[in-house]
Design goal:
By secondary structure, this protein is an alpha+beta fold. It has one domain. β2 and β3 form a beta hairpin.
């Protein structure tokens, strides 16, 4: 019985560590991923620009959230073509 309890405790601790590593990793990857997505979008849109205010990775929901995105025409940047507060 003691061995089973010890293995349950070790398994719970390992599961907790994995969850912490996933959360910290998703927090650390947000800014580099935002810069990458913004750079790739701007390379593919000729004459238009995209600015992304923030990008959040949600590993448990398997989703990515884009915040404060602005799409502007190169010839007429003001007012922007589109403002997206959250996507």
């Amino acid at each position: 019985m003691m061995k089973r309890r010890r293995w349950l405790w070790i398994g719970g601790a390992l599961a907790g560590l994995i969850i912490v590593f996933v959360l910290v990793g998703s927090w650390l990857v947000g800014e580099p991923l935002r810069r990458y997505v913004e750079r790739e979008l701007n390379q593919h849109l000729k004459g238009d620009t995209v600015q992304i205010g923030g990008l959040d990775v949600h590993p448990f929901r398997l989703s990515v959230e884009v915040r404060d995105a602005v799409i502007a025409l190169g010839a007429h940047p003001d007012p922007p073509l589109m403002r997206i507060s959250r996507l």
